[in-house]
Amino acid sequence: MNTPLEEPSKSEVITIGLDIAKNVFHAHGSDASGRALFRRKISRTTLLEFFARQPRCLVALEACGGAHHWARELTLLGHEVKLIPPAYVKPFVKRNKNDGVDAEAICEAAQRPSMRFVAIKSEAQQASALVLRTRDLLVRQRTQLINAIRGHLTEYGWVAPKGPSHVAVLGDMIEGAMGSSLPEAAKPMFRTMLDLLDQLNTRSANWTRRSRVGPARTRSPDGSRRYRAWARSRPPRLRPLPPPAETFAKGRDFAAWLGLAPRQLSTGGKQKLGSITKMGERTLRRLLISGCSAVVLQASKRGASAGSWLEQMMARKPRMLVTVALANRTARIVWALLLKQEDYKAPVAAGA
């Protein structure tokens, strides 16, 4: 598909849309007016060589798997690289979809003055986020294994209360006198699953400690102390996930990026707000929702501070709605702390 439309001078190339893939990449170059200058199919091994020959220009990619790596590599070659969310590229695809059309759509989307871009992550940021992803994977595998043990033992009439802490009861029953009632063929299978569960418990506990106080996070002075002053539980987990605070114009933009803003279905001058959009960073949104859920649960049992925002919200709104609203409010506080580089100051209730 090496089909140059013309043979323009390289100085005319202003924007290149790059559709990345596993082995075969497609590039679409255009000038300042948006006129297509070339379309190229490039192999993975010759991609950097191709861009080294190109004049310094804007290179746009979809923010998908491997995009941050190629963005860093192209930046080293002197190009200005921007990542576009795939959802913002889709409206620019004309009719049928193929790699060449995708590259053209990326190129056209990058030239829009109102387009939003994704901040490029460094290798260190991606490595820090990988700690959280690995821990989540281990926790999911542990849950799956616990459910398997409980389900198989139910077939033999053995039950235990829900929760990981009660699995030890089932393990003692298997190894104890009650284990003699199990078929001989089943005992090795249960022992294998229990051994795997012990390994997962050990590894998940190790990565939990690292996600709380990893050396790369706690020694850096640019936010971990402020996070700890803002929240009491595991704030360093949040640090590798969001982009720089300067990326967002205001706190609401950061909350909307997390998917904590309500979905709008407004038309005809009538404002209609639905549930939260659940867009953006899922891990960070889940951590905020989980933490705020615990706060609201305790407040519902013991009562919130007199005159506080939380007390006023709980007096007139359902608990789940208050939880999401508190997560939204907390996200805005996080953004303000990072942007202003200040310590958290607890609000004083009116009349105090």
Verbal overview:
The protein is of the alpha/beta class and 352 residues long. It has three domains: 10-110, ATPase, nucleotide binding domain (Nucleotidyltransferase, domain 5, 2-Layer Sandwich), CATH 3.30.420.40; 123-213; 221-340, no CATH class. Helix content is 49%, strand content 11%. It has helices at 47-53, 67-76, 86-89, 99-110, 123-154, 167-175, 186-213, 215-218, 224-230, 251-257, 282-302, 309-316, 319-340, and strands spanning 15-19, 24-30, 36-43, 58-62, 80-84, 262-264, 273-276. The strands form two sheets. The chain has a five-stranded mixed beta sheet. A two-stranded antiparallel sheet has the order 6-7. Helix 11 packs across helix 13 (319-340). The longest helix is centred in the middle third of the chain and has 32 residues, at 123-154. The radius of gyration is 26 Å and the shape is globular. The N and C termini lie far apart (72 Å). The model is unreliable at 213-224 and 226-236 (pLDDT under 50).
